[in-house]
UniProtKB/TrEMBL annotation:
The keyword DNA-binding applies. Residues 23-83 form the HTH tetR-type domain. This is HTH tetR-type domain-containing protein. The lineage of its organism: Bacteria, Pseudomonadati, Pseudomonadota, Alphaproteobacteria, Rhodospirillales. InterPro entries: Homeodomain-like_sf, HTH-type_TetR-like_transc_reg, HTH_TetR, Tet_transcr_reg_TetR-rel_C_sf. It comes from Zavarzinia compransoris. Residues 1-20 are annotated as: Disordered. GO terms for molecular function: DNA binding.
Length: 214
């Protein structure tokens, strides 16, 4: 029988292997870069400041990312890879599915804005500047996202249960209202008198596409 006087040995936490430590540090650098680029834009961000945010020497950052542009691309990819993809949702084939599809698209994007407001700040900053970085975001992410949303809205129109609204108008309203609410607090407070939660935002946006009597 075990001796009650002896204390049970605590299991030691498993130490991370070299590859796991490397990946963890790389992600920590990316997370710091996301915060830096969102707050200061590409021009205002610096690798030295991102290193300081991460708690490492500048040389350690250079081991993982050789250029500022490479790190910026990794930061943007990390954000957008976490976004629910409209193309992954099944296309509506009935009126009930049409309503559910719109509600799901709105709710997914509102929740994403709540958890990743940096994507709005970065995209808006690059859209204002124009150039190769905005082209990169558009090519790698925005074109597919817009295409996915448009495909769903067109399918919903065919069911005849929602207002006939151009996909571009729907997407612009979705992004604009979500951006103001989650990523632009000073403007939000002026226009909306304070923020609203993801559920309330989804309900608000759904009024843009609900048909009469819905």
């Amino acid at each position: 029988m075990p001796d009650p006087a002896k204390k049970p040995r605590r299991r030691q936490p498993r130490s991370l292997g070299r590859e796991e430590r490397t990946q963890a540090l790389r992600q920590a650098i990316v997370d710091s870069a996301i915060a830096e680029f969102a707050a200061l834009g590409y021009g205002g961000a610096s690798l030295r400041s991102i290193s300081a945010r991460t708690g490492i020497e500048l040389g350690h950052l250079g081991y993982h990312f050789s250029t500022k542009m490479e790190l910026w691309q990794a930061a943007v990819a990390s954000i957008f890879d976490a976004m629910p993809k409209p193309a992954d949702q099944p296309v509506a084939e009935t009126p009930a599915e049409a309503r559910a599809t719109v509600a799901r698209l709105i709710a997914d994007y509102a929740s994403f804005c709540l958890s990743h407001p940096e994507h709005i700040q970065i995209v808006f900053s690059e859209a204002a500047a124009g150039g190769e970085r905005m082209d990169w975001i558009t090519r790698h992410y925005l074109n597919d996202i817009v295409s996915g949303f448009s495909h769903h809205i067109e399918a919903v129109h065919r069911q005849g249960v929602l207002k006939t609204i151009e996909p571009a108008i729907f997407i612009s309203a979705l992004v604009g209202i979500s951006a103001i609410n989650f990523a632009l607090p000073p403007l939000r407070d002026v226009l909306m008198g304070g923020g609203i939660g993801a559920d309330a935002l989804a309900k608000l946006l759904s009024t843009l596409v609900e048909g009469p009597g819905e």
